[in-house]
Design a protein that fits this description.
Blueprint (H helix, E strand, L loop, with lengths): L8 H12 L3 H14 L4 E7 L5 E6 L6 H4 L29 H7 L2 E7 L4 E7 L2 E8 L4 E7 L15 H18 L4 E6 L2 E5 L6 H9 L1 H5 L1 E7 L3 E8 L4 E2 L5 E5 L2 E3 L2 H9 L10 E2 L1 E7 L4 E2 L10 E2 L2 H17 L7 H4 L87 H12 L34 E6 L3 E6 L2 E6 H18 L5 E11 L2 H7 L3 H5 L6 E2 L4 E8 L7 H14 L5 H16 L9 H12 L14 E4 L1 H7 L16
Parallel strand pairs: 1-7, 12-15
Antiparallel strand pairs: 1-2, 2-6, 3-4, 3-6, 4-5, 7-8, 9-10, 10-15, 11-14, 12-13, 16-17, 18-19, 19-20, 20-24, 21-23, 22-23
Helix pairs in contact: 1-4, 2-5, 5-13, 8-9, 12-16, 12-17, 15-16
């Protein structure tokens, strides 16, 4: 008996279905693309239970003639190509003739179609036609798919959650709607409308319907071409970014594709205008001769092979760069400026104002002493200048303030002899600092005393974990110089305060309390339906850090309050960044989410480079760093300080040298 035999047609179709029909979204994609190829102007998609129970696609296209309906369910039956030469100039979305038979082999399919006269009904179950009859139908086609993967239940275990599958369906419909703004699309799930476009041919209107009106307003049109390619579409300004590349839609001759090199060229067009780890929202429509592209690479046709791809990437990069160079990329101050708060948080223990203790410019000389001042955060505010310094002049939320101790201006005391040490001014000074209560370490109750400074002079049984630093000065407003008994220390002030802030926020975020800031004007956030569906599974994760999202329309969320440890003026940006984390990593645990939030807040609240501190602020920062659990690295792993031993300094100045050899060793 021969070992090699031909597979049954139904089994072959089911094998092919494994490549074409991966999930419910694949069914929607294939059916909608067939409707587009049929010159439809209105396409309606109705799904139930994320497509597993029912998928219906209705169009007003050309329809299928009665004599062609049964042939449409046969493998490799197509009206798009006829010979080998047509394969290299494909203009339609479908051409393989695999979609309909593959879907029918793993589901129950009912097709009702008409070319304008008497309609036809075809009922196909598991690849076998069980009914073929005339039917009353309007011009166009209606296909209903039920019991998907019912005859191959093993495929069901590879599907994701219903919410994820629905998000996949919504995403593919959105991409196709962006490809064909002249076609009206609607997507309804369990009676709820998720997507609707007008079909007026306005791409920006479609973008607004998917990503929100505010996002569409921050996108600019691009237009570039060369003899072989034409690139049009919209790209977002650098101020509008997302945490992943999935918001980049590449449309090649009306077909949504994945291409890493083209996406990379788009991002390269922004140059240094994008922050690390941030990506734009973009819709690029590429028009080219079908002879220059091979779409017969992958069964889903989302991966293509492009001839002269380097020229296309160069065109995209240049077009984006030149378009953005025409824009004023300074954000609108009126849209970015936070509204004045009418009420203050219930507790003000999170205030930090490094610039309140001293003026940034002019700076005192290194040896010049200035009287310490008391920072009063409750005093009446002075009028706000049009521009703030590099760091915020007043922060309304953050760790405990780095303020200087209260002191009154005093006349300097000149000590010329030993007897001058008994002067009343000297005795008062000594008495004050011998009895002063040390500040409480960060994150501990105020009642817990810090180590007694008087013990520092006594011999310790073991080496201290962190040196007792004595502040010397600041270098370029970025690094602090300090000395200890074992040498010189150079401290990165940003990394140091990042570490101090991180340990504070790690504790504050873990202790979710009812102390939240009510917003006079709520924050409204717009997201596409796919993101809204994904966020519904992570509302508890966001609530674990005090961010409570409420539905505010089909594609909007509203926030009425936020934790008091949010930095004033950055509430919206902070919430958006948290949401981006959840959308980018759907498996993010609550613990990991809190960790990322603490790192983000510590970096946002840390002083930056070129921020000049006076002596009191620098000393307070070093004192808080000494109480940190890990004072050696910032949350990102960078070192906080470096150490120069006395021997290192002596080597730098050549004070340690090999002994000179005497002349007796030389022979005459």
């Amino acid at each position: 008996m021969a070992k090699i035999h031909e597979l049954a047609s139904v089994l072959a179709d089911q094998i092919a279905a494994g490549e074409v029909v991966e999930r419910p979204a694949s069914v929607v994609k294939e059916l909608v693309e067939n409707a587009i190829d049929a010159h439809s102007t209105q396409i309606d998609i109705v799904v139930e239970e994320s497509g597993l129970k029912r998928i219906t696609v209705v169009d007003d296209g050309d329809g299928i003639a009665d004599e062609d309906t049964e042939m449409a369910f046969k493998r490799h039956a197509t009206s798009k190509i006829t010979d080998r030469r047509d394969l290299f100039k494909v203009k339609s979305l479908g051409f393989r003739g695999e979609a309909l038979p593959s879907i029918a082999s793993v589901a129950d399919v009912t097709l009702t179609t008409s070319t304008g006269g008497v309609g036809t009904l075809i009922h196909n179950v598991g690849g076998q036609i069980v009914e073929h009859a005339p039917a009353a139908a309007r011009k166009g086609t209606e296909i209903t798919v039920t019991d998907l993967f019912g005859n191959v239940p093993a495929r069901l275990k590879y599907l994701k959650s219903p919410t994820t599958e629905l998000a996949k369906i919504t995403d593919i419909v959105n991409r196709i709607a962006l490809s064909y703004p002249q076609i009206a699309f609607s997507l309804v799930h369990n009676g709820r409308e998720l997507t609707r476009t007008s079909g007026r041919g306005d791409l920006q209107q479609v973008i607004a319907g998917i990503y929100g009106v505010q996002s569409a307003r921050k996108m600019v049109a691009i237009n570039g071409e060369n003899p072989d390619f034409k690139v049009t579409g919209y790209v977002s300004l650098p101020e509008l970014t997302r945490a992943s590349r999935q918001y980049i839609s590449l449309l090649l001759n009306g077909r949504y594709i994945h291409n890493f090199h083209l996406s990379k060229a788009l991002i390269a067009g922004y140059g240094s205008k994008l922050m690390v780890g941030r990506y734009p929202i973009a819709v690029l429509a590429i028009t080219m001769d079908p002879l220059l592209v091979d779409v017969n690479v992958h069964p889903t046709k989302q991966e293509v092979r492009i001839s002269q791809e380097p020229e296309l990437t160069k065109l995209i990069e240049t077009t984006v760069y030149q378009r953005l160079s025409q824009e004023n990329l300074i954000p609108d101050v009126f849209s970015e400026l936070p509204r004045k708060r009418q009420n203050q948080p219930a507790s003000d223990q999170l205030t930090m104002a490094l610039n309140q203790a001293s003026q940034k410019y002019p700076l005192p000389s290194p040896r010049e002493t200035t009287p310490a001042t008391t920072v009063d955060t409750t005093a009446e505010a002075t009028p706000v200048a049009p521009k703030q310094p590099v760091a915020d002049a007043v922060d309304h939320a953050g760790p405990a303030p780095l303020t200087a101790p209260t002191a009154s201006p005093v006349e300097p005391v000149m000590i010329q002899a030993e007897s001058d040490l008994q002067l009343p001014a000297v005795q008062a000074f000594d008495q004050k600092y011998q009895t002063e209560t040390p500040a409480a370490p960060l994150g501990r109750p105020a009642a817990q005393p810090a180590p007694d400074s008087s013990l520092a002079a006594s011999p310790a049984p073991e080496q201290p974990r962190f040196p007792q630093l004595r502040y010397l000065g600041q270098v370029h407003g970025t690094y602090l110089l300090a000395e200890a008994d074992d040498g010189l220390y150079l401290i990165d002030q940003h990394a140091a305060q990042e570490r101090v802030n991180y340990e504070y926020y790690r504790q504050a975020i873990g202790e979710v309390s009812d102390d939240e800031q009510k917003l006079l004007v709520p924050i409204v956030l717009d997201y596409p339906t796919t993101d809204i569906l994904a966020l519904n599974d992570h509302l508890e994760t966001l609530a674990s850090v005090g961010v409570h999202l409420e539905s505010f329309g089909p594609n909007s969320l509203i926030v009425h309050e936020h934790p008091t440890w949010f930095k004033a003026g950055q509430e919206t940006a902070t919430i958006k960044e948290m949401i981006d984390w959840v959308l980018k990593d759907g498996k993010l645990s609550v613990a990991a989410f809190r960790e990322k939030t603490a790192i983000m807040m510590s970096c946002k609240r840390a002083i930056k480079a070129n921020h000049h501190l006076d002596d009191q602020q620098a000393q307070a920062l070093l004192a808080k760093l000494a109480t940190a659990e890990n004072p050696f690295n910032c949350p990102h792993g960078r070192p906080v300080l470096v150490h120069f031993t006395d021997q290192d300094l002596e080597r730098l100045f050549k004070r340690i040298q090999d002994p000179h050899q005497s002349g007796d060793d030389w022979e005459a």
